[in-house]
Amino acid sequence: MAEAAHEGAKLGIRVIPGCEFSVRAPWGELHVLALFLPHDSERLQGFLRDTRAARRRRGEQIVAKLQDLGVAIELEDVQAQLFGGDGGALGRPHVARALVDCGACDTISDAFRRYLGRGRAAYVEKPLPKLGDVTALVHDVGGLTVAAHLGDHGTEAQVRIFQDQGLDCVEVRHPSHAPAIEQRLTRIAERLGLGITGGSDWHGESEYGESHAPLGGMRVPDSWLAPLEHRLELTTRQRDERAASDRQ
Fold it and tell me: Where a domain ends, among 116, 146, 168?
């Protein structure tokens, strides 16, 4: 992140450090964006190291299942798909790309349909933390949390439950959100006093479609940033006040 911030400064682009977490949800899995993260937090880095290790173990299990099904694939083929070599968080999309590269599947969608989707022969459940554990971590290191691309799951009742578990914001603008969904989520966020965000959900050149747009492909108003910074200031102040009270 330090390198990205440095390069952004040279180009006149502000880089906001962030990370995407996966947590448990009533429908299975919720993606949570964490914004304004410090790159030098050992607690955060320790959590991410543990997450990467768990993802690698899951990847090994998926590859073993594929091999049992007669697919000629190795873990090294999957690791080669990671942006950061073997230091990144390995997931099913990396396995899917490897399946396409080795000729076992025609497309990433084909890989999920045949092997990797929930209930398919090579599916392995992902180990997921609780939302409250992630929001507590992010707040402790000085960041904000965002419920990503909720779509039809984003009812006011459900968002309120997430808010009670520490959620700060809702991603309202996303490639998978029709205008009506964006408007509905925006109204919910406003009623509950939550921040709003948006983004392309870009995960690489091979993952365009209704759920992902090209890098920079979703326009988000500059006016959305200042309220997030104000919210971050309040959250940080509340954290510091609690810490001071605990020391007394």
Answer: 116
Beta carbons within 8 Å of 199's beta carbon, 6+ residues apart: 33, 171, 173, 174, 218, 220
Provide the pLDDT confidence category of residue 212 given band limits of 50, 70 and 90.
confident
Q: pTM of this prediction?
A: 0.85
52, 165, 200, 224 from 25: Cα distances, Å = 20, 12, 22, 26
Q: Does residue 13 sit in the same domain as residue 70?
A: no
* Domain extent at residue 214: 2-40+128-202+209-247
Query: In this structure, is the dihedral angle defined by the CA atoms of residues 44, 49, 54 and 55, taken in order, positive or negative?
Result: positive
Residues 26 and 52 in one domain: no
pLDDT at 210 over 80: no
Express as a percent the part of the chain with pLDDT over 90. 76
